[in-house]
Design goal:
Layout lengths: L14 H35 L14 E5 L4 H12 L3 E6 L2 H15 L4 E5 L5 H14 L5 E4 L17 H23 L3 E6 L22 H22 L5 E7 L12 H9 L7 H4 L1 H8 L10 E3 L2 E2 L9 H15 L6
Parallel strand pairs: 1-2, 1-4, 2-3, 4-5, 5-6, 6-7
Antiparallel strand pairs: 7-8
Helix pairs in contact: 2-3, 4-5, 5-6, 6-10
């Protein structure tokens, strides 16, 4: 007897029809149960994504801190925590009016009246130099500099000085600001510089022949390149500051609900859809705070952190030759001496 594959059920219906019906029912049941599944797993996923809390109880009376981009998101929460610890905090913001409202809110919440707002537009080197000049005239010390401000997914555009917007703000702006404030940091040592980078640096490359995006440009990749530049700047700065008691760290804050996505409707929509997987700004600020205040991190200067612990960087982020070349090129673009 010849054995064959059954193609029909006993009722005469094709097997493919039965299988399709079963698959359709399974899919319908899965769809119905999805909200319940999400209800069960969301707390665990959120705990996983928000792991890493700065548990340091270090207080900062008499200490002076600057946080760039502190009028919203991670920067605002970072400034609030530093003020809560008693620091004298400067909110370095492009939007001074919004910054004043945030400063008033922080003063009310923390009871710390020493929270100030100063104009800083990282897309304009004149503004950066004016901010630094005024700060140095006003303050005797600077113990914590948190280079937090940034832009992401901008349409192609340039800063006031002709730099591609991501590279100009995220890297060159903070590079110049740190240079202008470095002597004050040294005089105030022990002091710290924290550069907010991103996991996205793994996709970044430093294209020295196309730093301004004039040959080819992609907003997403431009952001990644600038975040790699933050990592390389941190490592090279740490190497040059060895023995000065000024230490520096780069951080990945996590995937955070903030205004950073304002240039992308698609990303804002995705953030809204998966909001239960996204960190709050307060959670996103934890690693910056960890690197700013936790005792005993001095030997790890130049390292990268995520969720309040050491994190790996890409092979590009460990390339000392690229780091030194980027330093020299950045100095050349900004008209700075290369040996600062």
């Amino acid at each position: 007897m010849c054995l064959g594959i059954r193609s029909h059920t006993q009722s005469g219906r094709p097997l493919w029809s039965v299988n399709f019906h079963c698959a359709e029912m399974f899919g319908f049941l899965l769809l119905l149960s999805l909200p319940f599944i999400l209800y069960l797993v969301t707390p665990k996923i959120r705990n996983m994504l928000s792991s890493g809390v700065c548990t340091s109880n270090v207080q900062l009376p008499g200490k002076v801190a600057i946080v760039t981009g502190a009028n919203t998101g991670i920067g605002k929460e970072t400034a609030k925590d530093l003020a809560q610890r008693g620091a004298r905090v400067y909110l370095a913001c492009r939007d001074v009016q919004k910054g004043e409202l945030v400063a008033s809110e922080i003063q009310t919440i923390t009871g710390n009246s020493q929270v100030f707002v100063r104009k800083l537009d990282l897309a304009d080197t004149k503004s950066i130099r004016a901010f630094a000049k005024d700060f140095l005239a006003e303050e005797k010390y600077l113990h914590i500099l948190i280079n937090n401000a940034g832009v992401m997914l901008c349409p192609y555009s340039k800063t006031a000085d002709g730099f591609e917007m991501h590279f100009g703000i995220n890297h060159l702006g903070h590079f110049l600001l740190t240079h202008l404030l470095l002597e004050k940091l040294k005089e105030s040592a022990p002091s710290r510089v924290v550069n907010v980078s991103s996991l996205a640096h793994h996709l970044g490359r430093i294209h020295f022949h196309n730093l301004q995006g004039e040959k080819f440009y992609n907003g997403g990749l431009a952001y990644c390149h600038s975040k790699l530049a933050n990592i390389l700047f941190t490592k090279e700065l740490a190497r040059r500051l060895k023995g000065s008691r000024v230490t520096t760290y780069s951080v990945h804050p996590g995937t955070v609900h903030s205004e950073l996505t304002r240039h992308s409707f698609l990303l804002r929509w995705i953030w809204q859809l998966f909001f239960f997987f996204i960190k709050t700004p307060q959670q996103g600020a934890q690693t910056s705070l960890y690197c700013a205040v936790t005792e005993g991190l001095e030997s790890l200067s130049g390292s990268h952190f995520s969720d309040c612990q050491l994190a790996c960087v890409s092979s590009q982020g460990r390339n000392e030759i690229v780091a030194r070349r980027l330093w020299d090129v950045s100095c050349d673009l900004l008209g700075l001496p290369m040996d600062w």
